[in-house]
Amino acid sequence: MRWLVRFGYDGAGFSGWARQPGLRTVEGEILAHVVRQGVAETARDAHLEVASRTDRWVSARANALAVSTARSGPALLRCLNGIAPDIFCTAAAPISESFRVRGAVQRIYRYYEPGDATTARQWRETSRLFRGPIDVRSFGRGLRRDTPVIRTVNAVEVTEVPGGLVVELRAPSFVWGMVRKIVGALREVSRGRLTEARLRAAIDGRDLLTLPLAEPERLVLWSVEYPIPWTVTWPGPNRHQAAREVSQRDGLWARHEVLGALRA
């Protein structure tokens, strides 16, 4: 049977999604353990496909993958959650063999940026430029520069939260590096290094910019959405996942205290 699985991971422990020799990646970790966890007889039999690939240190709250297995939905989630404590599989739904996991109706990313009310106001004004069809040649990596590449952005919204900003970007699809380059453009405008006029020209494809990439560790693939309901949910976390969360939170507290002591 073919299943669509909603899953997330802490990007701090991975060199991205895709398998790479000698590096720990999300895909590599899953494929190395699907047989041991009883998901499939061989890794090839699992026919693993993913909705969105992420770069090194980028986290995911609700990415999606398709997997083939003889297991029931609850048993599949139990098996997948035993792979690694920093990978979480939270829901599943049966799908047909012809289902296109990359054909999501919308992808949502969130980027966490330190800032204040002034920064929030500046970013909010600039972010309104990113709506509708845009030429992403200035906002992607590895793209040809001589031919327009169009993507439709549903919204870029900036919300002020205690200690900083959350930038939420929604679109049916993104090119490689697009979210981090858009954040880089927002920074450049707020710092006075890029005018809104040039940014508008780049969005329209009339100018080509070389923009910095924002840091990957602040980025989360928040959600990948489909027009189907999740029929099975995971009641976890299991004890390994819970223990890791406690350990990570304790480590963050200790790091905060160490930094404070150094300033004293």
Characterize the structure shown.
- The structure is a single chain.
- Helix 3 (117-127) packs across helix 4.
- It contains 6 helices and 11 strands.
- A hairpin with a 2-residue loop joins strand 8 and strand 9.
- The radius of gyration is 20 Å and the shape is globular.
- 28% of the residues lie in helices and 27% in strands.
- The chain has 2 domains: 2-103 and 226-258, Alpha-Beta Plaits (2-Layer Sandwich); 107-220, 2-Layer Sandwich (Alpha-Beta Plaits).
- The longest helix has 25 residues, at 239-263.
- The protein has helices at 26-33, 73-80, 117-127, 178-190, 196-204, 239-263, and strands at 2-9, 49-50, 59-68, 87-95, 106-114, 132-135, 150-153, 155-161, 164-171, 219-225, 232-233.
Core attributes:
264 residues; alpha+beta; Alpha-Beta Plaits; 2 domains; 9-stranded mixed β-sheet; two-stranded antiparallel sheet; globular
Helix count equals: 6
User: Which architecture of the largest domain does the CATH hierarchy give at level 2?
Assistant: 2-Layer Sandwich
For the record, the CATH class of the largest domain is Alpha Beta
How many separate structural domains? Answer: 2
Percentage of helical residues?
Answer: 25-40%
Low-confidence stretches: none
Strand content: 25-35%
What distance separates the N and C termini?
60 Å
Q: What is the CATH superfamily of the largest domain?
A: Pseudouridine synthase I, catalytic domain, N-terminal subdomain
Main sheet record: 9 strands, mixed
The whole-number mean of residue pLDDT values reads 97
Number of E-type strands:
11
- Global outline: globular
Query: In terms of structural class, how would the helical and strand content be classed?
Result: alpha+beta
User: SSE order, as H and E?
Assistant: EHEEHEEHEEEEHHEEH
CATH fold type of the largest domain: Alpha-Beta Plaits
Evaluate the radius of gyration: 20 Å
